[in-house]
Specification:
376 residues; mainly alpha; DNA polymerase, domain 1; hpI Integrase, Chain A; 3 domains; 3-stranded antiparallel sheet; 17 helices; 10% strand
Length: 376
């Protein structure tokens, strides 16, 4: 901001001091102050106030649609997963329909965000869908706070819709998994077997490239890309490449896929019909059909392929494999692993009840024995 101290000499020779400054809008202002030192101090205070007003004035005309578009571009340039960017762009349509070219500083408020939530719920969106949209809006608002466009993130202060999560999930024992795989058609049995034995994500399995993602020397798969919407993308989860060890059964399967991978257009280990990329949806349909043939019922709406992942990770934890090792295989933190993949079993609950019962009975026996000894 521009400003200066001005000295004025009156006809009688008296000196007076004042300050002159220019507001962010361009208007010139003048104010008479006492002494020179007082004028200098007043100028510092005024210029500091003008700097704050200047930031507000600079961003007062920032429009929602333009800022959201720039935020998505920044996310893409920062290396965010293509699937996440595509989800954000799809989700942004709801925000644009509500806010349009509204002024971010004036109209993106706690009240407007709460009104947006009510509007989307009334339109038929599920609480989960609304919360996903709020994730995008919150990220955008957080960026706006860092840049000075907003003074606070309004999404942090709204009451978000509650998502009722189903606790029911089918966890297969290794014997049940083997029975299901026996009913899978020959075409898809190798892929589903690798998926069941290594607890990979379906997109990671479909994105494995034979020449670069297999280390037969160390018996490891290198997970460094995913297959999503018909194309391969590097860096799957959290931009971390990980290695997953495999045994003799998986080694035999991988060696048998060499010819098929050479004929694949993308060089993937498992390819779809015609040499294209394998679609995880096809594997999901095949797995659910095999479960039906084997007489194993999955919960309604369950993601079949993730049942294999949950079953493998849960079996490893139950077998005593340390959580750090299981978490490294899964590509999760230990905290997430224990929160998501540790499932209660009725048999373990009965064991817990039996342990307490035996402990109480043992204590009673000791008390009875001591009383007998005292009476003797």
């Amino acid at each position: 901001m521009r400003g200066c101290v001005v000295k004025t000499v009156l006809k009688d020779g008296t000196e007076r001091y004042g300050i002159k400054w220019v507001t962010p809008s361009g208007r010139q202002c003048w104010k008479t102050v006492g002494t020179k030192r007082q004028a200098q101090k007043a100028l510092v205070d005024v210029l500091g106030e003008m700097h704050k007003l200047g930031s507000a004035y600079q961003y007062s005309n920032t429009r929602f649609d333009a800022y959201l578009s720039r935020y998505l571009q920044v996310c893409e340039e920062a290396g965010m997963k293509p699937s996440t960017i595509a989800t954000y762009r799809s989700t942004s349509r709801r925000l644009l329909a509500f806010y349009g070219n509204a002024k971010v500083r004036e109209q993106v408020t706690v009240q407007s965000v709460q009104a947006f939530i009510s509007d989307r719920l009334a339109a038929g969106d599920t609480p989960k869908t609304v919360n996903k949209t709020l994730w995008l809006l919150s990220g955008m608002c957080e960026s706006a706070v860092n840049e000075g466009v907003l003074t606070l993130n309004p999404v942090r202060r709204v009451k978000k819709p509650r998502v009722l999560r189903s606790t029911e999930r089918a966890i297969l024992t290794p014997q049940q998994t083997a029975e299901v795989l026996r009913w899978v058609t020959t075409e898809y049995r190798p892929a589903l077997t690798v998926l069941a034995m290594l607890a990979l994500r379906p997109s990671e399995l479909c994105g494995l490239v034979y020449d670069t993602d297999i280390s037969f020397k160390s018996s490891e798969l290198i997970i460094q890309r995913v297959c999503w919407r018909g194309s391969l993308h590097l860096f799957p989860k959290q931009n971390k490449i990980r290695r997953v060890a495999f045994g003799s059964t998986v080694r035999t399967i991988l060696e048998g896929q060499r010819v098929g991978a050479s004929n694949s257009r993308h060089g993937t280990i498992f390819s779809g019909r015609g040499g294209g990329l394998l679609d995880a949806k096809v594997l999901n349909i095949e797995f659910k059909a095999a479960c039906k043939r084997a007489g194993i019922a999955l919960p309604e709406g369950a993601d079949g392929l993730y049942t294999l992942r949950h079953s493998a990770l849960s079996s490893w934890l139950e077998a005593g494999i340390d959580p750090a090792t299981v978490a490294s295989i899964a590509g999760h933190s230990v905290r997430t692993l224990l929160a998501v993949y540790t499932h209660p079993h009725k048999a373990n609950a009965q064991k817990a009840a039996k342990v307490m019962e035996e402990a109480m009975m043992s204590a009673h026996r000791r008390e009875d024995g001591s009383e007998v000894a005292q009476s003797a």
